[in-house]
From TrEMBL:
Residues 42-173 form the N-acetyltransferase domain. It holds the Pfam family Acetyltransf_3. Transmembrane segments: none annotated. It comes from Hyphomonas chukchiensis. This is N-acetyltransferase domain-containing protein. One of its GO terms (molecular function) is acyltransferase activity, transferring groups other than amino-acyl groups. Gene3D superfamilies: 3.40.630.30. The lineage of its organism: Bacteria, Pseudomonadati, Pseudomonadota, Alphaproteobacteria, Hyphomonadales.
Length: 206
């Protein structure tokens, strides 16, 4: 089964599709306050490349450009600006206040299924302190509310234990395995998780 996410595909009415596209087009930040992530712009390419260049950041993520160069990262950013204009994708960066990037979030949206996927990474100095789980939990609630989604679908490589624990711990349901295609055409196995809006808010009453 190749690149078949989301596994659950429920068509939604055109009014909902339009509401989702409009929401994606209008978004500028993920989260609130000084820690909020902002949309990435083309001028972020050097700082984003510096952040992504650490294998502890990029190795587990199949959607990143390969090879990682300033030009490929700039193209990745401009492609996401085009995806936002179509209401189908968002790329956010989180800064450290000194011009460095310490995190990024890549959201893909399938408006006709009211479904979305979140990928991203934190700077390795921030790993294993509960920040990824807290940030992901906030982001999933935001995706359901701000983007009007009904389903969030996630993938992780079979060896990416922190992400397995994060998704299992937040109440996602395992949905099997797919083959993911990297941007250079190579493939890898991915485990798939999903959670519905109803199941998410039954468990996360924030
Ligand atoms: C995935 C990522 C965002 C998780 O963030 P984090 O802040 O390190 O995660 P947390 O501290 O919230 O830990 C999540 C769970 O993983 C566990 N964990 C963290 N680091 C671990 C490690 N090195 N080995 C095994 N388990 C680990 C934690 O104990 C926790 O499990 P628990 O809740 O059952 O105790 C972060 O590791 C990262 O940026 N990784 C590189 C990119 C990536 O893999 N992105 C996800 C794929 S899109």
């Amino acid at each position: 089964m190749a690149d078949s996410i989301p596994v659950t595909r429920i068509e939604v009415p055109m009014s909902r599709i339009n509401a989702i596209r409009d929401a994606v087009c209008g978004v500028t930040h993920l989260g609130e306050g000084p820690d909020a992530s902002r949309l990435a712009g083309a001028s972020d390419a050097p700082a984003l490349l510096a952040f992504l260049s650490d294998p502890a950041v990029h190795a587990p993520i199949y959607t990143l450009p390969r090879p990682l160069t300033e030009a490929s990262v700039e193209a990745f950013i401009t492609d996401h600006i085009a995806q936002r204009a179509e209401g189908e994708g968002l790329l956010f960066v989180r800064e450290d206040g000194e011009g460095g990037i310490v995190g990024y979030t890549d959201i893909q949206v399938w408006p006709h299924w009211a479904a979305g996927e979140l990928g991203g990474a934190l700077h390795p100095s921030l790993h294993n302190q509960g920040r990824g789980t807290a940030g992901a939990g906030m982001s999933f609630s935001w995706m359901f509310r701000a983007l009007h989604l009904d389903l969030i679908c996630e993938t992780a490589s079979p060896e990416n234990v922190p992400t397995h624990r994060l998704l299992d711990g937040l109440g996602f349901e395992r949905k099997g395995e797919v083959t993911s295609t990297r941007t250079d055409g190579t493939t890898r196995a991915s485990l798939v998780w999903e959670v519905t809006r109803a199941d998410w808010f039954a468990r996360h009453k924030d």
